[in-house]
């Protein structure tokens, strides 16, 4: 009798799934008359059992916490090694069926033990916690501070948003943000703190750093004040960058490139102290920052100012004081009408 391997596997699969017909059953049983086929049965049935019981996830857990009951069940099968069906050539067909049934019973028992154990450990769908995120927004001209349930502190800059759960459940502490925020993360070795900010993903255990990721700006900037931060591309998840104290990562959306530098990051944190700092800054960037900082709409009459740059430091100064500096530097006048600022030539 010559039964190729694929046919043997098909016979066994049909038998175990109760799909085998009478002709196939006879062919299956006749295989025990041939030593090479019987050995193939042993091999295929054992592999079928191993693949059924030892999934990849279970294999990983079994290395650490395999239970005594499962060990005993597996030992029974290993001792029997499928040949425990007690078949020999002098046995009639019905005793062969009985032997096979005994083997299948052993397999089913062990699978049942495994299934019960994993079902006890795995949460049912209805038991899984529904994570609802709270959202916080800061309007232009305002800032806000929050302390999360794990003790982490977040300072949110103007025109920014933050999403976070009421309680952190699971293996990580996930928040989402846009705009600019300073994070002082409470250390937790078991649950990393993860931030999704526009195009990037930031993972930390416990550290302090600043993230700037405004929708309308090309650059996303991560500046580390203390500790260690890992940054990855949220979409590609390929490159990983590890930042330490006084390091800065800048991602350009236009160029789709990351750049890491050692730098004095005080200028990235000054906003928390009410400091506006311009260092040879283009007027287009100054305009956006002033609108965000003071919650106003700036209308520019003379477009030539967009080709100009300015430097200066303003600490806790009102809008009029900053506009006076711009008036002096650019030689233009201004007019404040409620939340609207008009910049015009003399």
Structure description:
With 346 residues, the chain is α+β, with helices and mostly antiparallel strands. Helix content is 35%, strand content 31%. It has three domains: 5-121, no CATH class; 133-268, Sandwich (Jelly Rolls); 274-345, Phage tail protein beta-alpha-beta fold (3-Layer(bab) Sandwich). The chain has helices at residues 5-16, 22-30, 35-53, 56-65, 68-80, 93-121, 266-269, 283-294, 319-330; strands at residues 133-137, 144-147, 153-156, 161-165, 173-184, 193-197, 200-204, 208-213, 219-226, 229-233, 240-243, 247-252, 257-262, 275-282, 297-300, 309-315, 332-337, 340-345. A hairpin with a 5-residue loop joins β8 and β9 (219-226).
Estimated share of beta-strand residues: 25-35%
Oligomer: single chain
CATH class of the largest domain: Mainly Beta
Number of DSSP helices? 9
Order of helices and strands: HHHHHHEEEEEEEEEEEEEHEHEEHEE
Mean pLDDT: 77
How many separate structural domains?
3
CATH topology of the largest domain: Jelly Rolls
Question: Which class of secondary structure composition applies to the elements?
Answer: alpha+beta
- Low-confidence parts: 51-67, 80-98, 106-118
According to DSSP, the number of beta strands is 18
Q: Compute the separation of the termini in Å.
A: 105 Å
Radius of gyration: 34 Å
């Amino acid at each position: 009798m010559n039964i190729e391997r694929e046919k043997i596997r098909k016979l066994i699969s049909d038998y175990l799934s109760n799909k085998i017909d009478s002709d196939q059953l006879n062919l299956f049983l006749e295989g025990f008359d041939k030593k090479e086929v019987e050995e193939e049965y042993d091999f295929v049935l054992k592999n079928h059992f191993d693949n059924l019981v030892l999934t990849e996830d279970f294999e990983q857990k079994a290395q650490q916490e395999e239970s005594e009951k499962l060990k005993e069940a597996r030992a029974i099968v290993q001792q029997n090694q499928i040949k425990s069906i007690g078949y020999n050539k002098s046995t009639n067909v019905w005793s062969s069926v009985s032997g096979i049934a005994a083997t299948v019973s052993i397999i089913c028992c062990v699978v049942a033990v495994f299934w019960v154990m994993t079902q006890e450990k795995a949460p049912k769908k209805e038991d899984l916690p529904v994570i609802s995120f709270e959202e916080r927004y800061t309007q232009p001209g305002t800032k806000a501070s929050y302390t999360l349930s794990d003790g982490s502190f977040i300072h949110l800059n103007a025109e920014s948003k933050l999403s976070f759960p009421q309680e952190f459940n699971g293996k990580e502490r996930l928040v989402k943000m846009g705009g600019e925020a300073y994070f002082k993360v409470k250390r937790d070795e078991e649950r990393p703190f993860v931030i999704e900010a526009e195009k990037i993903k930031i993972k930390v255990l416990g550290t302090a750093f600043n993230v700037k990721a405004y929708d309308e700006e090309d650059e996303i900037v991560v500046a580390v004040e203390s500790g260690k931060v890992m940054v990855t591309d949220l979409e590609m998840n390929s490159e990983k960058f590890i930042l330490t104290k006084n390091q800065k990562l800048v991602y350009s959306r236009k160029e789709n490139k990351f750049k890491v530098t050692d730098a004095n990051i005080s200028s990235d944190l000054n906003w928390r102290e009410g400091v506006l700092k311009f260092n040879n800054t283009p007027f287009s960037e100054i305009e956006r920052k002033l609108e965000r900082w003071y919650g106003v709409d700036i209308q520019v009459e003379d477009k030539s100012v967009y080709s100009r740059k300015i430097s200066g430091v303003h600490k806790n100064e009102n809008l009029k004081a900053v506009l006076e500096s711009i008036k002096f530097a650019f030689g233009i006048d201004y007019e404040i009408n409620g939340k609207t600022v008009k910049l015009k030539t003399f």
